[in-house]
Request: fold
Amino acid sequence: MLRKIYLLLIAISALFLTGCGSSGSGDEAGCYQKGYAAFYTFEENGTLTSYNEHYERSRLTAAHHDLPYGTRVKVTNLSNGRSTIVTINDRNMPDGDYIIKLSEKAATELAASKEKPTEVSLDIVKWG
Reply:
């Protein structure tokens, strides 16, 4: 039984450490996740999110596989250092190795390129 608890604690620790180096943000929560961002398409504007809100490209929102709805996340573009804070309101993620899907406004604030993958880090600002 103790062995199972020990292995569980190791697995949980690895979850929080995987893929995150020093984010340099100084936030209390620290780096939550690091990977690639996807972006909503122009055609998705007005569609219903899984949180039962209409997606609006002019809002700072995002989709994430696991984070609770309402969680506020600081997203930093690792190629240029620009960051913005988004609110999780969807689970609609594309296939592939993406960790977050950003609204058009969030992508603009990050100066993210839609032509090549944008590597980002995520820091939890406030849990939903």
Observations:
- The helical segments are 2-17, 104-109.
- The chain is about 15% helix and 30% strand.
